[in-house]
Amino acid sequence: MFGAAVVMAVLLLLTPPLLHTPFFDWRATLTAVRQSWRRWTIKNEAVAFLIAGALTGLLPLIHVHSLVVLGVVTACWALLFPRPAWIGFFGVMLLLAVPRLLMAVPGDPGAPPEHQYPRWLIGWMSGTDAPPWFWIKNTGLFIPLLLLALLSPLALRGRARLLIAPFSLVFLIANLVKFQPWDWDNSKLLVFWYLASAVAVGALLVRLWRSHPVGAIGAAGMWLSLVLSGGLSLMQFLPPQGPSYVWFTAEQVQLAADVRRLTPPKAVFVTGEQPNNPIADLAGRSVLMSYPGWLWSYGIDYRRREADLSKIYQGGAPALDLLHRYHADYVVIGPEERTAMQPAVDYFNAQFRLLLHTANYAIYAVPAQRG
Known about the structure:
Elements: H1 2-18, H2 26-36, H3 44-57, H4 64-80, H5 85-104, E1 119-120, H6 131-139, H7 142-151, H8 158-164, H9 166-174, E2 177-178, H10 187-211, H11 213-235, H12 250-262, E3 268-270, H13 278-281, E4 286-287, H14 292-297, H15 303-314, H16 317-325, E5 330-333, H17 335-340, H18 345-351, E6 353-357, E7 362-365
Parallel strand pairs: 3-4, 3-5
Antiparallel strand pairs: 1-2, 5-7, 6-7
């Protein structure tokens, strides 16, 4: 969500200047760079490029896939529409992004090779299907309509097509390389390709709609073929036929409020591994280990910590040693912990001070380390 917001902000900052930048005018651009190198001045449009570069450079802290998208698209735009301001954009972006990327890639060195990234992934999730057939099955007429919209002047002018076309390179890259251990995460790249390409496809359908009554019928049919399957798929999850789901109960909301009131902001909690964790998500406290699916998708080897988490809930002297080693302050026992961890409740009741108690939850304070 935050990554998409940054991408939209960067695109809004960059596209207005590019609308009147000469196409592929590298000679004039290089001449301008040489002449102004020693008396550099920052104009209003250059400020927009610097801000866009700073936002892009911060994306490794927010959403790496959004950085990949902007990196590919802006590199293509800089090649097609050269201007001196691109130097500031890429300079700021690399200055902010590279240190964080060097820390994150290729993931945990101790993880198995298949969990490190980036890695080749030809065809993405096509499996036994040929990639073209896989995409025809999943997108229908979208890609043929997109090719027609980008390769012909039927719907968009040349400059608009050139601004949208680099997103197709994002589509190609997402079908060749995976950027996290979970191959499904490439969908975070593909969603930007689809959003940008939908502008071109939509413009083509509007052109057909306005051209002739027969064209209007054809455009309506093609539009229905593109949206009806997704609409029907979503309807099965909507009430009344779809299941309703409660992410947090009223008890968990109140528990989180009490945790915020009674514990310091930097306290570390031992909890279960559920993705909807009231301690981390609502109370804003650090936890010893979060949802394994997220850790795995970032190439983090969590096996040692997960084993230690299980030992803590088994109780005894080893549990207390581990709690002190990880500087944990509190232990949570709730429905998730009882199901997945089978905690030694009697041990915690006897050896730990009870901080909070509700109908389904108990939070214990870890005794201070002696000596």
